[in-house]
Amino acid sequence: MKPARFDYYSPSSRDEALELLGQYGDDAKILAGGQSLMPMMNMRLVRPKVVIDINRIAGLSHITPRRDGGLAVGAMTRQRELERSALVLETAPLLSLAIPYIGHFQIRNRGTVGGSLAHSDPAAEIPAVCLTLDTEFELASSGGERTVKAEDFFLNHLTTALEPVELLTEIRIPQTVGNWRWGFQEVCRRDGDFALVGAATMLHLDDKGICLEARITTFGAGGTPMRMDAAEEYLSGSSVNADDRSEAARLVSDALDPISDIHASAKYRQDVGGVMVRRALEQALLAQALPFNEGEDAA
Amino acid sequence: MVQQYIGASITRKEDERFLTGRATFVDDVKLPGMVHATFVRSPHAHARIVAIDTAAALAMPGVVAVFTYDDIASLAKPIPVRLYPLPSLEPFLQYPLAQDKVRYVGDPVAIVIADSRYVAEDALDVIDVTYEPLQAVVDIEESLRDEIIIHEAPGTNLAAHYVVSTGDIDQAFRDAEYTRKERFKTNRHTGNPLETRGMVVAYDSGELTVWGATKVPHFNREVLSSLLDFPEEKMHFIEGDVGGGFGIRGEFYPEDFLVPFAAIRLGRPVKWTEDRLEHLIAANHSRDILCDIEIAMKKDGTILGIRAQVYGDMGGYIRTHGSLVPASTAGLLMGPYNVPAYECGVHCVITNKTGVGTFRAPGRYESCFIRERLLDMAAADLGIDPAELRFKNLIQPSQMPYNAGRTRADGDTIFDSGNYPQALTRALDEIGYAETNPKRWVDDAGRYHGIGIATYVKNTGRGPFEGARIVISGTGDVAVYLGITTMGQGHETTMAQICADSLGVSMEAVTIYHGNTDYIPFGGGTYGSRGTVMGGNAVHLACQNMKERILSLASTYLDTEPANLVLQTGEIFRKGAEHGPALLSLGEVAGLAENAGSDEEDSGTLEITAYFEADQLTFSYGSHAAHVAVDPETGKIEIIRYVVVEDIGRAINPLMVHGQAVGGAAQGIGATLLEELVYDDSGQLLAGSFMDYLLPTSTDVPPIESIVLEEAPSPLNPLGVKGAGEGGIVATGATLANAVSNALAPLGVQITQLPLSPSFIVKLLSS
Ligand SMILES: Cc1cc2nc3c(=O)[nH]c(=O)nc-3n(C[C@H](O)[C@H](O)[C@H](O)COP(=O)(O)OP(=O)(O)OC[C@H]3O[C@@H](n4cnc5c(N)ncnc54)[C@H](O)[C@@H]3O)c2cc1C
């Protein structure tokens, strides 16, 4: 369990990193929190010739309010910082709800927002949340910058729209408070494991409790997190009552075509994917903005 | 009042070293000029080796050597069986390197030595082994058809088959008013000590030193001596601190030959530290048992007989004690019950998987699951409460000692002492069994709750002997050298407690030395909960002899009779005047021994070696009880309460016994809910790292309520002790499976295999 030979660079500026990326492209790997990259290198499942460590670049780690009420988060922001941020709780409570499900706090201390998105494990929480929140990603290369929507970012199992020469620098999360409700559910074999299957939801309700817009994402049930169009359409205009929630769950199970592995069968992921959606919807109807608790320390 | 150490919950002497990071594990051993080993391991489950090309690797800078079968051919002998030998096993034993065939993924094909582990792993990339893949056999029933033969010479995949029996089984089934037949399967998993295997071997001036030995170093030294054709007295096996054994660590494996072989050939110290990926494919697996069982009963629940077939999946080779796993499954399948007739066929079956050895409570975890599940099914069929059914059949204290008959090929099973019903009563009381009515219910959240119970008996303290050597120096310090080894059990504390009480000294004066073959000529090692039974009684015996010697020396000097003197807190007093002035200190007695010189048999040092012998086993026993809640939609199981009651005869250190019970239960909970070494049809291990091999974490293990009873001391040894290392794990599979089956009984679920993964539970619920 020792990595193959590689050259190591530790650029101190973004431009320097982009230049290195431009030079080495496919042969290079960005090192962020290292929580996914290092195990893969140690098992020699990936063998980059060059590792570009972006931990010493200033300006990549921040949580900043945007003028439109949304949130900008730097790619190198540690997952633990999101978990402890009052601003995130106020602006994107779904993200606050989901983060504690990532591994254990030790992993979240190192793991970054950008690393999770670039790695794009199909069962990862941050990608699912970003897809649900219609997040935008800023990708930079020595040639310039471009913005990609979440729906266009996740392409396939561990594959994103990132080009080998590109760095993910920032994500932008639109505001979803006010009459929005949120829910997040997952089932895993042990606390801290990647989910066997899970669901995230946002419901925009009018004053009478009628659903103006429903967003439903499943994760761990395909190559990428997926928005569940049929269930979303079904729920909009409904009161999201028990029957509606069950029907949405059924529509989700019907739409899923997951794979089997040693931890769960395809059938399990399909059936329980629906259950997770139903429970996330129930949770969303109960969701209230919570006061931020500075001392709270989820494990 | 003199302090009693035995029975006191003294915190562990060794913990300061461990908790402050100052322990010395084998990977901490670093020698000048040391080089590093790694292994070319087969990527195929079953294949012929056509060619091995090492040229490119040997040409790499930093690569020191590569050895293949041809290099060891002149020495090549198979690794012998340590426990449960049977003649038919011989042709299935493993050689240190594969010769012309590989038989599991991980089978060593070559050993690579390089300046660093990094370079050694780089070399693995360029060693070109040409394989001709063969069809793999990964299933017991498929293997038994002998359509694909794994070992050509014997021409069969059945390495052993025999029948154990007692009573008239045919008569039992003729008399039966009720029978039930079931098939059970336990999941292949293993102990996974936190410290993986490893060794550092140095060869210097004809002496060979092996660091990293544990479990059975004296036996392993004998094996290595025979395999290397190297004089045993010139080999020194050193244990150091060890991060867990659980039966896996310390057996003689191929690497235990290859690393010393390389060190001798190269004349340089060689280190090998196994990584987790290697560990999961190379170190012993366990628990892979298939069992067909049938029970004969009267309508009132009285057991008349049990007959069964036990099939143990042995993996690609018979390892040092693989055959013990099915033997022990059969050996205690009847459990702590009156079973007048019993017959069991035992089959050791070769497959293309990693070799099997023991894991904490080998065969007993399995047999307890099989039997206790079947009893719950029978209880339901007969409309009898599961606890009542057990009380009806448990062996009574008045029947002790109880000969259960020839349930093992190597002898009768004789329960030495015990009050089995009392242990069950206690477990039921703790879980609130009588008050919990009904014993299953559904809560507001739709979760299914159930109570489950199981009872067990577990043989401990295997002989034939164990040694201890005691040396008292001129300062009065007492050094105790053990023949047993220590993988984390805390013997530096318990053995000091025994010594201090048995000799009459303070615990502070006692230092325990263990794990070095130079300390004592013979040692049986530590396995099967034998440490305290055998090693503890050896210390006790040595202390008795030492005390006699001390009092004899002192009485000669003081011109009185030994009977007039007492040894207490390290000093000699006149009997009846223990509060008066001491007549002699221990250090002074050591001086007397020196002066006594050649008059005494030990020629001048105050030193005693004693061997405690035992030809019978001590049987710990107990009951577990659990309350679980199952989410029928996700299949997730929550353990709400878990109770372990075990009687170990006498607890030397209740705090440490408690630790053993909790640790054992945690391991068993992991084994039952999470852990499985899953293979695909081609014999690839799919749970090859800790990403997929799921050990329990703190959130999976509830607080374990452990109750230690001391109601039935063993009559077989002076301390009255029985082994305490395995009671926490034995009944975990049975208890949790019973609790879950009970909870889900209204939905028609009966568990017959493990582990209880969410996906498996949901599948059972939907079928
Ligand atoms: C025991 C354990 C449990 C875990 N459990 C979970 C879990 O339950 N859920 C979960 O989501 N994750 C889990 N993880 C993974 C963890 O969240 C990682 O932090 C995350 O997947 C990767 O983030 P990182 O910052 O560590 O990235 P790294 O490991 O450093 O990088 C990951 C990949 O992303 C690329 N990359 C990183 N940053 C950028 C960037 N800015 N631009 C372009 N490419 C980039 C790297 O080149 C690499 O290919 C777990 C990890 C461990 C070790």
Describe the structure.
The complex is a heterodimer of chains A (299) and B (767). By secondary structure, chain A is of the alpha+beta class. Chain A folds into three domains: 7-53, 2-Layer Sandwich (Uridine Diphospho-n-acetylenolpyruvylglucosamine Reductase, domain 2); 63-173, Uridine Diphospho-n-acetylenolpyruvylglucosamine Reductase, domain 3 (2-Layer Sandwich), CATH 3.30.465.10; 180-286, 2-Layer Sandwich (Enolase-like, domain 1). Chain A has helices at 14-24, 37-42, 79-83, 86-91, 93-98, 105-110, 113-119, 125-132, 150-153, 229-235, 242-255, 266-286, and strands at residues 7-9, 28-31, 50-53, 63-65, 71-74, 136-141, 144-149, 154-156, 159-160, 167-173, 180-187, 197-205, 211-219, 226-227. In chain A, the strands form four sheets. Chain A has a five-stranded antiparallel beta sheet. A four-stranded antiparallel beta sheet of chain A has the order 11-12-13-14. A three-stranded parallel beta sheet of chain A has the order 1-3-2, covered by helices on one side. In chain A, a hairpin with a 5-residue loop joins β12 (197-205) and β13. Chain A is globular. In chain B, α11 runs parallel beside α19 (732-744). The model of chain B has no long low-confidence stretch (mean pLDDT 96). Chain B is α+β, with helices and mostly antiparallel strands and 767 residues long. Chain B folds into three domains: 15-22 and 463-613, 2-Layer Sandwich (Aldehyde Oxidoreductase, domain 4); 31-134 and 194-244 and 249-282, Aldehyde oxidase/xanthine dehydrogenase, a/b hammerhead (Aldehyde Oxidoreductase, domain 3); 286-461 and 617-766, Aldehyde Oxidoreductase, domain 4, CATH 3.30.365. Chains A and B meet through α12 of A and α4 and α20 of B. Flavin-adenine dinucleotide is lined by residues 29-37, 75, 102-103, 107, 110-112, 114-116, 118-119, 121, 124-125, 162, 167-168, 192-194 of chain A.
